[in-house]
Write a structure and sequence with these properties.
Elements: E1 2-5, E2 15-21, E3 28-29, E4 34-39, E5 44-48, E6 53-58, E7 65-67, E8 71-77, H1 83-89, H2 94-108, E9 120-121, E10 139-140, H3 142-151, E11 166-167, H4 169-183, H5 224-239, E12 242-250, H6 252-267, H7 274-288, E13 294-297, E14 302-305, E15 311-313, E16 315-317, E17 320-322, E18 325-326, H8 334-350, E19 363-367, E20 386-390, E21 394-400, E22 403-417, H9 423-438
Parallel strand pairs: 10-11, 15-19, 19-20
Antiparallel strand pairs: 1-8, 2-4, 2-7, 3-6, 4-5, 5-9, 6-8, 12-22, 13-14, 15-18, 16-17, 20-22, 21-22
Helix pairs in contact: 3-4, 7-8, 7-9
């Protein structure tokens, strides 16, 4: 028997959640075949079998968490015997043997790439032959799996539309619609006693004889990324005494600057939003107020000032909030910031970023305006000292020189750790950032 333990997934991750088992007890697996999907604080990855053999026991169920080094599954290793003897001694059926042989042939021909040693697959195995006993390995992104769960669709029944056999969001929606159409049919008419009329429901729907009353609530386990978000939010709110300062900046100059740079950016193939500009405006303010780019070592009771500027960018994914990290933002040009931000945000939404791209931020910028928000109280990304939320840029009536005029206004909300930062410092930080937003040309003074 071979005990397979949760491997080191990197970045100091000490535990992971078993998102989905790709094999069952009794199935035959080959070395480096994907056997489970696991989810850490930030990423979803696959782990692979270290041996060729049969699954004897699964010790950690789906939705449960395991710590690094904990036994996940036990294999009965297959002896290196001739094929004829193996066929006589093994209880596997001919169909299963054929499926396993197909898997071995596919792996041998380079149909899948696996990372040896660590036990973590770097590519998804082909859908055919990935599991025996007639169960195929479904290729689908996390967003597709989430949609299938919400619609009650079994992904194994959905025919893929892509050449490589990957199930898409459109495939799931089309399958769900076909299911709904197939199950919807004429309702049988119930005979009524002569001379009586059944009362019609208030909403016009026909009553179903003997139908159970609809449940008044539904419970769902808090799992995956949503549970990680809940845990991090709880830790931040319980550990850090939050305070929030609010302000508004006139965004007229920022709008004009972006409009001037937009044609140049488009010629270079860059998508220039306001976010890269805000990042570049933020860096000199963090350098001027270093306490905002710091954290508190709670065990040693020391303030840790960071000499790097790794800006976390709060990003909404289909499964919840992620914070990709723009590393060394102070060393990047505006064009480089724009390019890297586009890659990170898209990777965050698709859940394709590595752990090193989702950890290590020193300050977080939350652009709530990107999804229509105007303002709010951001929660600090523990263990950072502060977070800045920027709302939707919109026209408002403001007073200028005694007259009422319409101006583009940018809402600002700065949450800070009140153990390290006082209200006066927060006000000064916001005032300086507001000054740069309203006069972005000041950055030219700091160019080398």
């Amino acid at each position: 028997m071979v005990e397979f333990r949760l491997p080191d997934l990197g970045e100091g991750m000490e535990e992971a959640e078993i998102r989905r088992w790709l094999v069952r007890v009794g199935e035959r697996v080959t070395a480096y075949q994907a056997i489970a999907e696991v989810e850490t604080d930030k990423a979803v990855t696959e782990i692979t079998s270290p041996v060729t053999g049969r699954v004897a026991e699964i010790r950690v169920g789906e939705g449960a968490r395991a710590r690094k080094g904990e036994v996940l599954v036990v294999f009965e290793e297959e002896a290196a015997t001739p094929a004829g003897e193996r066929a006589q001694s093994s209880p596997v059926t001919a169909a299963t043997t054929a499926t396993a042989a197909t898997t071995e042939a596919t792996l041998a021909s380079g149909g899948s790439t696996a990372q040896t040693g660590a036990g973590v697959a770097t590519a998804v195995a082909p859908a055919t032959g990935a599991a025996s006993g007639g169960r195929r390995r479904v290729l689908a992104a996390p967003a597709v799996r989430k949609l299938a769960f919400e619609l009650g669709v079994d992904l194994e029944q959905v025919p893929p539309s892509t050449p490589e056999g990957r199930v898409t969001l459109a495939d799931v929606r089309a399958f769900a619609e076909r299911q709904r159409t197939a199950t919807a049919g004429p309702r049988p008419e119930t005979a009524q006693p002569s001379g009586t009329v059944a009362p019609a429901p208030a909403n016009g729907a026909q009553p179903q004889p003997g139908a159970a009353p609809a449940p008044e609530e539904e419970r769902q386990a808090l799992t995956g990324l949503r549970r990680r978000i809940a845990e991090r939010m709880e830790r931040s709110w319980r550990s850090i005494p939050h305070a929030t300062a609010f302000d508004e900046a006139d965004g007229g100059a920022l709008v004009a600057l972006r409009e001037a740079l937009l044609p140049v950016a488009e010629r270079r193939g860059l998508r220039l939003t306001y976010l890269p500009l805000l990042v570049k405006l933020l860096i000199p303010v963090l350098k001027e107020f270093p306490i905002f780019n710091a954290s508190l070592d709670e065990e040693r009771r020391e303030i840790v000032y960071k000499r790097v500027y790794h800006i976390g960018i709060a990003t909404a994914s289909p499964e919840g909030l992620l914070v990709p990290v723009l590393r060394h933002a102070d060393r990047l040009s505006l064009a480089q910031v724009a390019s890297e931000l586009e890659r990170l945000v898209e990777g965050g939404r698709r859940r394709t970023l590595g752990l090193h791209e989702l950890t290590g931020s020193t300050f977080t910028l939350n652009n709530v305006g990107s999804f229509g928000g105007s303002s709010g109280t951001p929660i600090i990304n523990y263990p950072e000292a502060a977070i800045l939320a920027v709302g939707r840029l919109q026209e408002k009536a403001v007073v200028r020189n005694g007259s009422l005029v319409a101006r583009p206004v940018l809402p600002l909300a700065l949450s800070f750790d009140h153990r390290l930062i006082d209200g006066a410092q927060a006000g000064a930080f916001l005032a300086r950032f507001k000054e740069l937003v309203e006069n972005p040309q000041q950055l030219l003074l700091d160019l080398v």
